[in-house]
C-alpha cells in the first residue's frame, strides 16, 4: 500500500513512465481516501489485469517485453505464483529488472509485515520513547518510506548495470541497515541501545529535545566547535571537550536545561542559527508546511508534497493519480 507505490512515484516524478498494474477491483489503498491514494500514485498510469488468468499473464508478458523494470510489493508466495520474477519474465526481456519488495525477503516467508510490525520486530520501537514509558512508534511510516527509497535505488542501479536480474529488498533488512551505528556498537562492543529522556543521542551531549519557556527546542551539539559557540551564547563555562561532556552527561544536561528555560524555543532558534548551531523549535506539521509552501505542488485537485529530488534543468509535471484502468486502451495499442 505504501512502500512500492512510493518507490515508483519517485521514479515517475523524475520522468519515468510508470504503469500501475491493479487487480480487477482496484488497489486496496483506493479505499482509504482520495488524498492517501494521490499522495503515493501521482504521475502514473493504471491498467487493470487479472494476473491469475491466462489473458492477464499474456498482457503482463507484453508489458515486460517493453519495460526496463517491474517492481512488485506483495507476499513472496504471491510473487512466485503470479510469475512476477526475473526467472519467469526473462523470456520476454533478458534485460528486465525485477524488484521484489517484501516484508522479510523473497525467501523469508509470508508473515504479515506492515510498517509498525517491522518497527517493533527490528528494535526501532524498543529504542524510541521516554525510558520510563512504553516503547514508541514514530508518527509516520518510516519503514515503508525507507524501503521504498531503497527499492528505487536498487532498481536504478541494476538498470544501469545493463544486466537485468532479480533485486530483493525487504522492510526488515532496510530497517536493520538503518540502525547502522547502533547495531555496530552492539555487534563489536556489546553495547545494547538504551533510551534516554527527550530522545537524547547516545554519543553526543547535548543532543536532544529541551523544554524551554515556551515550546521544545531540538539542540544537536556534535563537536567542540558547536559547543564553544553555544556555551558562549548561553553563558555556560567548562566542558570544552566532547569526551568530558559525555562522561558528565547529567551535569551538562542540567545546566543546559536550566539556561534554555529562560527563553522560548523560537527565540533560541533565532539566537543560535546565525551562529551556525544546529537548533530548531519543535513545530507541528501544519506549522512546517506554512513555513515551506514551496514544497507543496498541485496534481489535479490534490495538494501534495513534491519530489524531494531536484535535478538541474528538469521540472516535474505533476499529474493526478490515475483513474482505475485508464491505460488499458494505450496498452492495447502498444500490443
SSE inventory with pairings:
Layout: H1 3-13, E1 18-22, H2 34-41, E2 44-48, H3 54-65, E3 69-72, H4 76-81, H5 86-89, E4 97-102, H6 115-121, H7 142-161, E5 165-170, H8 171-178, H9 180-189, E6 207-211, E7 216-220, H10 224-234, H11 242-247, H12 249-260, H13 265-272, E8 279-281, H14 285-291, E9 296-299, E10 302-305, H15 328-334
Helix pairs in contact: 1-7, 7-8
Q: What is Rg?
A: 24 Å
Major sheet: arrangement of strands: 3-4-5
Overall 3D form? elongated
Summarize the helix and strand pattern as letters: HEHEHEHHEHHEHHEEHHHHEHEEH
Characterization of this structure:
There is one protein chain. The chain has 15 helices and ten strands. It has helices at 3-13, 34-41, 54-65, 76-81, 86-89, 115-121, 142-161, 171-178, 180-189, 224-234, 242-247, 249-260, 265-272, 285-291, 328-334, and strands spanning 18-22, 44-48, 69-72, 97-102, 165-170, 207-211, 216-220, 279-281, 296-299, 302-305. The strands form four sheets. It has a three-stranded parallel sheet with strand order 3-4-5. It has a three-stranded antiparallel sheet with strand order 6-7-8, with helices on one face. It has a two-stranded parallel sheet with strand order 1-2.
List keywords for this structure.
CoA-Trfase_fam_III; alpha/beta; elongated; CoA-Trfase_III_dom3_sf; 15 helices; 335 residues
Task: Summarize the entry for a quick read.
By secondary structure, the chain is of the alpha/beta class.
Amino acid at each position: 500500500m505504501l512502500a512500492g507505490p512510493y518507490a515508483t512515484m519517485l521514479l515517475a516524478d523524475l520522468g519515468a513512465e510508470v504503469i500501475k498494474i491493479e487487480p480487477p477491483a482496484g488497489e486496496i489503498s483506493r479505499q482509504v481516501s482520495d488524498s492517501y491514494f494521490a499522495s503515493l500514485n501521482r504521475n502514473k498510469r493504471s491498467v487493470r489485469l487479472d494476473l491469475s488468468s491466462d489473458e492477464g499473464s499474456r498482457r503482463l508478458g507484453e508489458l515486460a517485453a517493453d519495460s526496463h523494470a517491474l517492481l512488485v510489493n506483495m507476499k513472496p508466495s504471491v510473487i512466485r505464483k503470479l510469475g512476477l520474477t526475473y526467472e519467469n519474465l526473462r523470456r520476454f526481456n533478458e534485460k528486465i529488472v525485477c524488484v521484489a519488495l517484501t516484508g522479510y525477503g523473497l525467501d523469508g516467508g509470508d508473515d504479515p509485515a506492515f510498517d509498525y510490525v517491522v518497527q517493533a520486530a527490528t528494535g526501532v520501537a524498543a529504542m524510541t520513547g521516554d525510558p520510563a514509558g512504553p516503547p514508541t512508534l514514530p508518527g509516520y511510516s518510516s519503514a515503508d518510506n525507507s524501503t521504498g527509497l531503497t527499492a528505487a535505488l536498487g532498481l536504478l542501479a541494476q538498470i544501469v548495470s545493463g544486466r537485468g536480474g532479480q533485486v530483493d529488498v525487504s522492510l526488515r533488512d532496510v530497517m536493520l541497515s538503518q540502525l547502522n551505528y547502533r547495531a555496530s556498537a552492539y555487534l563489536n562492543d556489546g553495547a545494547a541501545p538504551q533510551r534516554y529522556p527527550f530522545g537524547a543521542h547516545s554519543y553526543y551531549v547535548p543532543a536532544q529535545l529541551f523544554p524551554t519557556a515556551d515550546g521544545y527546542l531540538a539542540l544537536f551539539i556534535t563537536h567542540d566547535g558547536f559547543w564553544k559557540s553555544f556555551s558562549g551564547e548561553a553563558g555556560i563555562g567548562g566542558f570544552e571537550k566532547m569526551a568530558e561532556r559525555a562522561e558528565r552527561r547529567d551535569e551538562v544536561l542540567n545546566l543546559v536545561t536550566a539556561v534554555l528555560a529562560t527563553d522560548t524555543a523560537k527565540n533560541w532558534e533565532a539566537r543560535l542559527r546565525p551562529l551556525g548551531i544546529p537548533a530548531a523549535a519543535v513545530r507541528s506539521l501544519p506549522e512546517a508546511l506554512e513555513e515551506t509552501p514551496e514544497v507543496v505542488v498541485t496534481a489535479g485537485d490534490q495538494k501534495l508534497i513534491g519530489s524531494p529530488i531536484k535535478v538541474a534543468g528538469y521540472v516535474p509535471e505533476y499529474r493526478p493519480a490515475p483513474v482505475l484502468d485508464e491505460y488499458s486502451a494505450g496498452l492495447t495499442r502498444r500490443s
